[in-house]
Each structure stands twice: as structure tokens, then as C-alpha cells.
């Protein structure tokens, strides 16, 4: 499949590399067509024909599916550059969190009565936004089995079909076996607000890799 | 031990009953000394001498340890009625969440750059506020083993000694074996904000009893 990965940070590189290894064609998008991190990423991939790079718009036009791996604070601007037409009718897998990293204690730039997931969906009504993977670190995103237990990841989105597709991608590409569909895109609020607890758990436990598992009876 | 339980709802009744069964003397506090729910609760306990009731102030004065089980929206007023002097030098175990239940989607009345836990601690600087158990339903609070797996509960508070005591109470009274100390009272933000995800999980899974387990590697 042709897949766009918007963002050149750790999440974008980790997801991009995993997808290239699986045989997909991945275009990493960034503000500048020759972003040094994207250039370096493509160079280090074993299969360079399948690891290409370009602008946000190039990548969005290229991908049948689009991963948003930009920082939350930069997401809306990145998607504006990607262009509504290039994302029209496509699934946008939104892994971002609207975090403000300034200050010792992290806060969110939007929460409680709105979320970044909803802002994206409102801005691009013809794109199928599915929020997921934003509750785990990038090395857990693409390899949940490393944790030794079947932990949980969530889906938020308005389209049942798009969520079914993303559920299959999560399973087939990354190995996720416990995926909870939380409901429509307003449930992005919960998973985005959880990142504050995620941060606290990380600081408290010093765990490099962790996730939560929903246990019910 | 003499224990105060502020609030006559399900959480207060469940915690109160568990503590009475364990042999503690519990006073349930409410706005009115003869709150019908408190009267009924005390009447139904097998050991009525150990299940008594009174005003918030009566209960706070009675307890060596105080559980806040009031609704978040009512907490600050309830504690004002309980009285700073009655809580001075004592541990206040805060199980509440600042939820606004109006509207189909729950929101928080305070979050992101403040929390109810911090508001309580700021208002009562001579009381040792420890936020915990607010991430689970009341039937999980007092019987985590029912879930069949060792799930996680959290501690937030400024006093290491108070948290150590509460950790022991959680273990000895209720059977909690996985307790993560998140840090000072500002970490209340994360656990309170998590309740939005908690709500979404509950609606999505229809699970009567559930909790999250932190899995790390």
C-alpha cells in the first residue's frame, strides 16, 4: 500500500520504518521537501525505493492512508499545508497529542470540551479521521508484543468503516490484539487527556516501554 | 481505627461497609446529621455500634483518617462544613472527581492546569491530602481481586509519610497490590483527567467492573 507519514520525529520515523519493512511504499512528509531528518531516514532504510520523502502535500497526495505523526502543536498547520484535496476521502490516522511541553508540568492546548481529534475532523469533514496510538510511545506503537502482555489501544472516529480498516491495520501491521473502539471522534478527548496520566506514570516508574491493559470482569 | 467517610453515595457506603466489616469504627458524614441514606446504611450494618453517622463536622472530628467520597462538585463545600480544625494534621483520602454529569458527554469542572486534589490541598494546608481510588468504580475500590488480575491504582500527594500510610491502608484494607506513587498533588490532574477515558471505556465495553493495569518492560 502507499502510505503517507506526516512528521519526521521519532513517531513518524518508527512507524515509517515499520511500514517499509512490511513492504509498503512510504512517503514521509514535512514542511520542506528536503527536511534533513526525512532525508536521513530514507537513506538508512534498506529498501530506499520504498522510503521516499517530500512536502506534506506531496505525501498526502501519495498516500492511500495518511498517518499524522506531527507534534500536536504543529498538527493543524501541517494538515493545512497537506491540503484538504489531498486528504479527501482518505483515512487519516491521528497519533498526535495537543501537548504543551513548555514548563515542568505538561498541559494540553485543548481538552475537556474539545480535542485535537475533533478539531481535525471539523476542519476536514471529507477525511475519515481515526484517533489511535496516541496513548503509547512510538516503540510500543509498532511492537506491542514487546511488553509481554496483551495491552490495550483505542480507536475514536465517526466512521465505522474507517475504524474497521484501522483496526485491521493495527492488527496486521503492528500486532495489536486488544483494540477498544471508544466511539465517535469526541472520545478523542479521553485518550488525549490520558496523556497527562501517561506522563506521570512514565516519570514515576522510569519505564522505557509501558502501556495500560484494560481488565474487566 | 476511627474512620470518617464523607458522603453517603455508593462510594461512601461501599467503603464505609468494608471498613466496618474489617472491625473499624466508621462515621458517615453528610450535610444533615440524619441524612436518610446514612441512617439506612447504619441500620443495615451487622455491627451498628461501628456504623454511625453525623454531620460532615461530626465525622471529620471523629475520624483519625478521613475519606472524601462526596461528588466532586460538592466536595469543597462539604469540606468547608467539615471544618479545617477537624481535619488538621489528619490524612484526607480524596476519592472524588470534579465531574460535570450534565450533558451527554462528561466534562471536568477543573482540569489541565489545576485539579480538585490541588484545590483541596491549597484550601487545607494543614491536612495531608492523598488522592487515590478515583480511577476505579466503588466495587473495584474495595475488592480489586475480583478482576482476577493485579490491576493498578495510583497515589498523588505532597507527604511521603501520608502516602506510605495510605499505601498500607490500600493493601491491608482493600487488597491493592499494585500501587503507583505518581508524585506530588499536582499529579491529581492526570488521574482526574483519566476519568473521561474511564467513562469512554465503560460505555464502550459495558463492563460493570474494570480497571487498568500498567504493564511495563
Write up this protein.
With 217 residues, chain A is of the alpha/beta class. Chain A has a single domain (2-205), classed as 3-Layer(aba) Sandwich (Rossmann fold). Helices cover 41% and strands 23% of the residues of chain A. Chain A contains nine helices and eleven strands. The first copy, chain A, has helices spanning 10-21, 36-44, 56-62, 72-82, 84-87, 116-123, 138-141, 160-174, 188-205; strands at 2-6, 25-30, 51-55, 65-68, 91-94, 99-100, 107-108, 128-131, 153-157, 179-183, 210-216. The first copy, chain A, has an eight-stranded mixed beta sheet, sandwiched between helices. Chain A has a two-stranded antiparallel sheet with strand order 6-7. The radius of gyration of chain A is 16 Å and the shape is globular. Chain A starts with a strand and ends with a strand. The interface between A and B is large, with 44 and 44 residues. Strand 11 of chain A pairs antiparallel with strand 11 (210-216) of chain B.
Terminal residue distance of chain A: 39 Å
Oligomer: homodimer
Extended strand count of chain A: 11
Strand order of the largest sheet of chain A: 3-2-1-4-5-8-9-10
- Chain pair sharing the greatest interface: A-B, 44 and 44 residues
Question: Largest sheet of chain A at a glance?
Answer: 8 strands, mixed
Tally of helical runs of chain A:
9
- By CATH, the topology of chain A is Rossmann fold
Query: Mean of residue pLDDT of chain A?
Result: 97
What percentage of the residues of chain A does DSSP assign to strands (E)?
A: 15-25%
